[in-house]
Amino acid sequence: MEDLTGRRLVVVTGASSGIGLAAAEHLACRGDQVVLVGRDPARLQAAAERVREASGERPELFRADFAVLDDVRGLAERLRDAYDRIDVLANNAGAIALQPLTTVDGFEMSIQANHLAPFLLTNLLADRIGRIVVTASGAHRFGRLNPDDLNSPLRRYRPMGAYGTSKQANILFTAEAARRWPHIPAYSFHPGVVRTRFANDSRLVAFGMRVLPFRSPERAAGTLVWLANQDPARLVQGGYYYNRRPRRPFRKAADLRLAARLWAASAEAVGIPA
Ligand SMILES: NC(=O)c1ccc[n+]([C@@H]2O[C@H](COP(=O)([O-])OP(=O)(O)OC[C@H]3O[C@@H](n4cnc5c(N)ncnc54)[C@H](OP(=O)(O)O)[C@@H]3O)[C@@H](O)[C@H]2O)c1
């Protein structure tokens, strides 16, 4: 599967739908070798077909459920077997859990699927990654991250609080990754409010879809594609972006000591050295 033509290899998680699929299509059309990671096999196949129709090339597919850390470990192993170098890892998979859920690994669903899983995947691939782009969210404003208790949202469950906490973690993770791995450009971004399958089961969001100015997945993917392509000299290492501009996140997502504590707690949670 190694590409000898000098094209970049870009791995996009959450590529079976929404922003990830739109970004994968765009990157493939620009000439990148795109690798799609998704959870649902049928949606993943359909996404591959869309990328093939758009770019003329069928991408490689990898399936993993981020609610299962063993799936993430297996995914990292299969990616390592397949590719010596991953020029860009787009950590984009994510969801809001409308009910309190505990994963098989014992963690609140949002913090695991949206933060611990990509944290583990990135660490297991770090020696091969050329750049990291993380789909975070302005919803980090609702976060109440406590690194000493990653399951704290379960106690008085609020979907947006749990989701916001995981997105706060995305921004802190990116900042700390940039500090620990200065040789790997790393950026997070808010894609805007986007018309995707995200929170499709929520009546509130369905109502919002009718009345709010949602943007298309294609437009939202623009910032991901831009961050994957810009010269790092023109970007802020570890920075958080919105509409292709650096933006200061809320203080709770800009606290570098909290970022360091989150890293240590996450490493312990997934069983890797801190
Ligand atoms: N839509 C918005 O307004 C908005 C705003 C800010 C940030 N975001 C962020 O944008 C990212 C992409 O979301 P989207 O809006 O494009 O939603 P989407 O259409 O629902 O796509 C989400 C993607 O993540 C995958 N995913 C979800 N849970 C997973 C799990 N447990 N394991 C593996 N993959 C999983 C989905 O796979 P399946 O196909 O199997 O479900 C899908 O490919 C997320 O990180 C989200 O937090 C979205």
From TrEMBL:
<dbReference type="Pfam" id="PF00106">
    <property type="entry name" value="adh_short"/>
</dbReference>
<keyword id="KW-0560">Oxidoreductase</keyword>
<dbReference type="InterPro" id="IPR036291">
    <property type="entry name" value="NAD(P)-bd_dom_sf"/>
</dbReference>
<dbReference type="GO" id="GO:0016491">
    <property type="term" value="F:oxidoreductase activity"/>
</dbReference>
<protein>
    <submittedName>
        <fullName>SDR family NAD(P)-dependent oxidoreductase</fullName>
    </submittedName>
</protein>
<dbReference type="InterPro" id="IPR002347">
    <property type="entry name" value="SDR_fam"/>
</dbReference>
